[in-house]
Input
Amino acid sequence: MRRLRSLFVLLLGAMCLSSCTLIPTAQNPATIPNSQVGFELLSKTIPDTNNGRVRFRTQRVYLVDASGHLAPSSRIVPSPPTLDSVLQELILGPTKIETYVGYTSRLPRDFVILQAALKNKIGYLDIPTPLSTLSSRRQLLAVGQLALTAQAVGATNGIEITVDGVVQYLLLPNGKRAHLVTAGDFKSLLNN
Output
């Protein structure tokens, strides 16, 4: 009997709470005047900083299009773009819209860049697992994506990839391997 009474009181309380609301509803959306927007959300600078600003710019990353070639795509990154920030956008892969039109990425789904640095116009990438575990075609496209994207950020002399401090010899489209690959090595994989 005690359980039944508790259940009845609980149901009665739920019915009472569900039949009322504290916020009145309106038929149309209401416009909030700028003067009533708090927390300095409309300010051009970051609140509680000395005029701190974040600027963004578009940056090219390279994905694989529906025909299996490398193609540029745009991403928005903080300005000035760094090798790490742009490569992180590449790792995220294609957007939903790009996926619908056939764009993909040949980087492994669990691909991680431990460190990315730019020195003397060479991009140095440290990754936990070698790309040589991928099939030849996938490896070519993955390295091409990295080299072309890195060039767009300033690695014009190429990229070098290491795994646990060991330099990796990367597959080139001509079948050879090199420890330093440039965007020019992968021009034949671009969609012209």
About this structure: The chain has a mean pLDDT of 87. DSSP finds four helices and eight strands in the chain. The radius of gyration is 26 Å.
